[in-house]
Structure formats: C-alpha cells, structure tokens
Amino acid sequence: MEPTPEQSPHHAYPDHWEADVVLRDGGTARIRPITTDDAERLVSFYEQVSDESKYYRFFAPYPRLSDRDVHRFTHHDYVDRVGLAVTIGGEFIGTVRYDRIDDTGRPASAPADEAEVAFLVQDAHQGRGVASALLEHIAAVARERGIRRFAAEVLPANNKMIKVFRDGGYTQRRSFEDGSVHLTLDLEPTEKSLAVQRGREQRAEARSVQRLLAPGSVAVIGAGRNHGGVGRTVLRNLLAAGFTGRTYAVNRAFDEGLATLDGVPAHRSLGEIDEQVDLAVIAVPAHRVPEAVADCGEHGVQGLVVLSAGYAERGADGRELQRELVRQARSYGMRIIGPNAFGIINTAESVRLNASLAPESPARGRIGLFTQSGAIGIALLSGLHRRGAGLSSFISAGNRADVSGNDFLQYSFEDPDTDVALLYLESLGNPRKFTRLARRTAAVKPVVVVKGARHSGSTPPGHAVPVSRIPDATVSALMRQAGVIRVDTVTEMVDAGLLLAGQPLPAGPRVAILGNSESLGLLTYDACLAEGLRPRPPIDLTTAASPQDFRDALAEALADGTCDAVIVTAIPWVGENGEAETGDGQVLAEALTKAVAGGSAKPVAVVHVEIGGLAEALAAASSTAAPRPRTVTSAARTRAATTATTARAMTTGTGTPAAPEATTAPATPDAPPAPEAAPRPGRIPAYPAAERAVRALAEAVKYAQWRRQAAVPGKVPEFLDDTIDEAGAAALIEAQLSTAPDPRGRPLTHDEARELLGRYGVDVRPTLPAPDPEAAVDAAARLGYPVALKTTAPHLRHRADLGGVRLDLADEEALRRAYGDLTDLLGKPAELLPVVQAMAPRGVDTVVRASIDAAAGAVLSFGLAGAPSELLGDTAHRLVPATDRDAAELIRSIRAAPVLFGWRGSAPVDTAALEELLLRLSRLVDDHPEVVSVALEPVVVAPQGLTVLGASVRLAPPPARNDLGPRRLPNY
What we know:
Elements: E1 19-22, E2 28-33, H1 39-47, H2 51-58, H3 67-74, E3 81-88, E4 91-101, E5 114-121, H4 130-144, E6 149-154, H5 159-166, E7 172-177, E8 180-186, H6 191-213, E9 217-221, H7 230-241, E10 246-250, E11 260-261, E12 264-267, E13 279-282, H8 289-298, E14 303-306, H9 316-331, E15 335-337, E16 343-346, E17 353-356, E18 364-371, H10 374-386, E19 391-396, H11 405-414, E20 420-425, H12 431-442, E21 447-451, H13 472-481, E22 485-487, H14 490-502, E23 510-515, H15 518-530, E24 534-535, E25 539-540, H16 547-559, E26 565-570, E27 573-574, E28 580-581, H17 586-597, E29 604-608, H18 614-622, H19 634-641, E30 686-687, H20 690-710, H21 726-738, E31 746-747, H22 750-758, E32 767-769, H23 773-783, E33 787-791, E34 805-809, H24 812-826, H25 829-832, E35 834-838, E36 844-853, E37 857-864, H26 867-870, E38 875-879, H27 884-892, H28 911-927, E39 931-941, E40 946-948, E41 951-955
C-alpha cells in the first residue's frame, strides 16, 4: 500500500518549525505544526471560541466542528497543506492554516506558488499578538515550501484580522468582492516587514523583563522556618526593601497550622493563595524544581527567578535538566531568570523589589546592571554602594538559560529610569542580535560591557551557547562599531558607569585640569595624553587653596569655551594653623557641587587622595541637584505615578544622558525622541587615582563622538550598483558549488577567484604559471616587463622575507637569473609553484579580508601587510554590510594608519580607492553568503589607484542565520 502524505518520509514532521515566542504582553507561547494527535485539543480549543469569532472564520454560523473538519484540520502533508498552533500549557490558543491553490483557487501542488490562509484565535487571548506571531511563522514556512503569495478572504467587520494583515509590513493588494475583503500578500520580506517584526520583538521582550522586575505579588517557594536558608534570606530581603506588592512564603513542609512567616502569609502550595501570583522565586533543591514550576504554571504565575543550583554548571546531565526546565516553564508561558541565579532588584519607588541574596538593597539611581555571574554581581553591588551610587535595576542571570543580556538591552532601551546599562557577560548566545540591539540602545544611552572568558576558548560552565571562532580583538572592534563601551575590568565598568550616569557627555577631547597638587596634576596630564585626550596645562591652586578657591577655579573652567571637560585633583589642603586638613570632604564637595550647578553642561570628575568621605559627600550633594530633564511618553509618566500593581503596564519612553552637542539618535521605527533640552549635571564622580578618572573620561569622549556620528548614518554609495553584476556572480557561485557537494565547500582557483571578484568591480592582476624558465620568459612576454617572479607554495606565499619574491625584473636576462637563484635557494619548481606577474605601481602593501562566522556574521577586516597585522595584530574589523563611514573608519582605526597618510614625508596614498575596494568586498559577501571567506593580499595602494596582486576565495553552503526569519526564543 502506498503511504499517505502524512506517512511519507519526504513529508516527515518538520520539528524545525517549532518555536517559543514572546507575545505582546511579555508572556511566552509555543508555536508548532498541528499533527494527527491534536484532534481532542482542536475540538476543545474550538469550543472556547466565541460564536462571533467562528462566524468571522467561516462566514456563517458554525457552532461545532464535524469529524470531517477535525480530520481535515489535523491531517497535513506539511507542503501543500500546513497547520500551525500556538499552545500554552499544552492547549491550543490559536491556529493558522494554509492550502496551496492554483490560479482558479482550487487545491494545487507545486509549482503553484499561492496559498489561501486563515487564522483563528481564542477570544481570551486576542490582543496578545498571537495572530501576528502566527503570520510571521506561517509566512516563513510557506516561503520554505515555495509559496510566494498568501490570499485571504476577510469579512469587512473583522477589523482585527484586517489589521493583522495590514500591519505585517508585507506588500499587499486589497479588493472588495462578493461582500468580503480579498487580500493578497507577497511573502518576500521587505525592509518594512523586518522593521515591524523587530519592533514587535523589542516591545514583547522588554515587556517580558518588565513583568519580572515590577510584579504586583511575589511568592518565595522554599522559604524555610529556619533562619539562614536561601529562601528565607530572599524573603527577608524582600521585606527589608519595602516591596510595595504582596508577598507570600510557600513551602510544602510548612505545618498546616502555620499562618505567617516573618509577617507574611505562609502556604504549603500556590493553590492555597487566593490571588494570582506574578513572580515566583524558587529556592528548592534541583530535583524539586519541576514540581514547583508545574505548580506555578498551573496557577498563572508570570515569571520565575530560579536560585537553585545543580544544572548546566554540573555537566552534561545538568545541562539536559536545564533545557527541560526551560521547556517546562515556557510551556506555561513563563520566562526564567536563572537557574543558579543571584536574584533581581528594582529600586523604583513604586516597586522597591529586592528578590535577591543581596543583604542590602542599593540606593535608587540611574544605572541598570546585568551580570551572568553571582560573584561578580555581589562585587559590583558592593562597589557601587561603597561609592555612593544607586541602581535602577539589577539582574543576576546565573546560567542564563532564558532571560539574557539581549533581553536586558531590550528592557533598558525603553526603561525611563535607566540612563546607563552595565553588563558583565561571559558568553553571547546570539552575537548578531546583541550587536543590533546594542547599536540601537547606544544611540540613546550608554552601554558598558565587560566580557569575561575572553581567552579560555571554551564556554563558561553552565552556558550552553554556540561558540564563535572569531578572536576577542575582533569581538571588541565589533562592539565599538555598535557604540558599546568595552572595558576590561569590572572596576573600569563602575568607573565609566558613574561618570556616564551622573555627567553630560563631553563635546570633545579637550580637558582642563585644576587642583592643589602640582604632582597630581602632572600625573593626570600624562594620563590624558596616554588615552588620546587633549589636556590643557594643569592649573595649580597650591596646597593653600581653600574650597572656595576650588569653586572659583572650577566655575571659570566650566565657562571656558576652549575645554570640553574638567578634572579636579585634590589632596588634603593646608589649614590656618599650617597643618593638613583631611576633613570629611563635605566642605569641598559642597563647593564643587555649587560650581557645577552654576556652570555649563560639561562633565566633571574628581581625583582625590586621602580626603575622607569626599566621594560619599559628592554623592549626597548630588541629591539636591536639579533633576535631569528627559523625554518620557505619557505611558511612562503613568507608570511612575502608579502602584506596583499598575506598574506592570509597559512603558514606552526613555531618558537620555544628553551631550552638549544635542545630537539626535538615528531615525528608527522604535527609537525614542531626543531630549528637548540638555540636562544639568548630576552626581560628580570621585576616583582614587588619576588613571581611573581619565580612562572613564576617555571612554565618554569616544562614546560621545560615536553618538554624533551615529546621528547621521553612513550609506552605501549608489555608484556601486552600476558596476556590479550580482546575477552573474550568483550564477558563477551556483555553478561552482554544484561541482562540490561537500558541505565544507571548496576554494576557488586563481582564475575562478578573479572572475568572481571581477563581477563586483574588483580587478585582480593576472598571474601566469612558470613551471620552468622558458614558461617564465613566455609569461613575461605576454604580460610585459618589468615583472615579478613569485612562489605560490603555501609555506612561502607572501613571504618576501624568505626570498620567495623577486621584483622589478626588467628583461629576460634578469628573469632567468632570478629563476635560477630562486630554485637554487628554495627548491624545485614543482615544490615552489612559481608564477609571473606584471609589476604594480609602488605603494603601501595592505591586506583586506572578509569572512563569515556562524555566530557573529560577516566581518570585514583591514591591516597593513606583513608584521603590523601578523605579528602585532594591528587589524581593524567592521560588520558587513559596511557603509561609506565604516570603510573610512576601518582604514583609519589601525595604529599604523599614518603610513597611509604621508608619514615622515612619504606621499599619501589613494585612500578613496581603498575605501571603494572595501565597500565592493563588503557588498559581495553580503549579497552572497556562500562566499564564506575572501583574502586580498597584498593590495598595493599607490598615490593614484591600487592594485590587487593576490586573491583567495572559498565558497561553501551559507551557515544558518539565527537573526533572520520569524521571532523565536533561543533554545540552547
């Protein structure tokens, strides 16, 4: 008997269509193909749909599904007939189905490329973005199966469904026929559909984190009667912080007669609580966590903080337990922080949440902090507290099985209480997405990152993520391109965070230095020069300077238009009796604060030695400073004025630490408005060493410059379009890959690489083989003298220092002599593989490369050939696609860049031609991801033009991308 379509191996269950998604309200759901086992679920789902929704779906009263309907809607071939369902807790809450049709609307098979599509969502879940998520996923499935258009018939009164189609961003056509609206959607992704998708992703993921940080009620599961346990500690920290919502203690071991614990209601299970609990903190042994998660899911808990250890940090068995934990939580629509987490904190006055093991809740401030390490989280909280700084929010994600740094960036972008985002990361689960989110967030507020595990070559224990092969130096360069402030230590992160959260951005690198110690001023001056700043000569106020002298000098510096920032250096001053007065710093802090309050919007930092309490006094004095103006939407204002329960409504505004230049963030669909006015300075940061203050200021200067440049995004020049044969290159690539079925791909020959690069306007100078002296002479005659003789053996390629390259051979005699010398010195021609090439104009030898990393994406690299890049690592990197600004910055960001611009009297080279070459190569690898690596070496850049002397290209099937396609949560 022939197999049915459902049984055919060709149409096996497509498990890669399964996906966890975040809905509009921050809850999660699972999307999966409908199978023959879903009959009962489908009937139950349909019974819960209102008569009105049924009418909109079937255009007639349709109270129940017949057996034939159930069979039809659960039997699919996953090619011409596909059904997807959205599930929570294993039950359907929405479905979508397509049927392939021909031009007459009848059922069809390929090559027909149109399908009829229809949706149905339970009324209780309408408005959560279920249909929008289903449209993204069913469109991706259809494209995979060769379908290019969807057709839909919608009743005019079904405004919600019409809006789903209209807002999807796809190209569409509408007509009114026979009493219904006929819609046709082209499924090819557009710039608008991608922007819509990412905007929805941002709002949903931000909301999911906001639900965790601003719950109306919290249950601590595992809070014991004995003091000192993890659960009891979290419960006491919640109460000590003054959490504004309701708190419950839950432990199945409680005696039935126990009514309260530490003054809050005590229960044996969540089912005993009369209201829905928003957040559960789980502090029970790992083997009891599944039971606790199930209890939470059955009773409508929205999110979990899992403090329990014993998961991926314990090895393969623990990693599988961790994956099952995530699957279980998401099946109920819950997100997880953890496991092995330290906890979360939200200092907003309307929330005051400390669901962590931190014994003291930090003061309220403008810094958001995310860490993947509990130990680092403890150290950062302690360091910020010691320096008088406050936080807006804190998340210690532990093993980071679900909520990640990307989610925190989504939240920080919208949070009006956060001015600076600090992140300690040990792994990047989705580097492409991180770069994209960081760039957007950095356009409105600083993002400071410390990356741990940089050189270990392995994933930290507990982190099950894809491993990137790109070096850490490349990661750092790509972060800089995205506007991320990358620092090396957590101390540097705190230093930079304090300056960025309390001070305006500098308008430039000019720094005024003033203080009462000539030596400390000189140390600060030297540190500024080392960091690339432009310090003015230090102003020495002498050791007899009083706090009033400091105030006057600072006010004068702030009013001086020739400086962009001020560093104040201070040591104990000499009192009236001639003795040093250390004091408590209060008087000096007041003087400096008053000077700043009356001055211009320039950043000020203080370097102090042995002045007790100065940092604390400056922090206290800032509490009386004028509030920083910020642009906040009405939704954000509402949230700030409500209680913790209503605070769960999502905000859509943001605050921005303003720069004096009043730059405007890049125009994006979900970017917030810029501030209406430059804010007045806030807290003045104090540092115990000049180097630390200067390094923080230097980071602020570089970030401010990036912000100014990002306000006007770069572009790809239009002239490239006229000289690029994209279709021709695609045909060449397809032909080459068809001859190499190996999934690892194949390298192209020199001639093949020349032909492919030529389609993108990259001219590689030809080489001719020279297996013997006569062939070398013939090649030179064809190319024209003078010529170069080079070996192409892998161990000698590009190694002129080993004698494998002979240049400026002017005639046949010189060529024959060079050939003999080469073979006598290095070996037989068969080993050396010599070639002859026409000489290029003299210039600077450079190297241009592009490669694709499966995790990070396509990367464009540039450096000088030889020792600068190979020995010293002096190479710059940018993500593809590169803009004209990226190309210009790329060649100027290497340390050896002065060689290109007339160093020591040499002629400047044609950097415009070099920038064009970079753009062409970027376009090639962006248009054709099958080009997995390209190396142009050397590229000789002359005062006029350039010459590409060597090229190697490798083709392979493109690696799967996790940043395209429909929204989905990662599964590690």
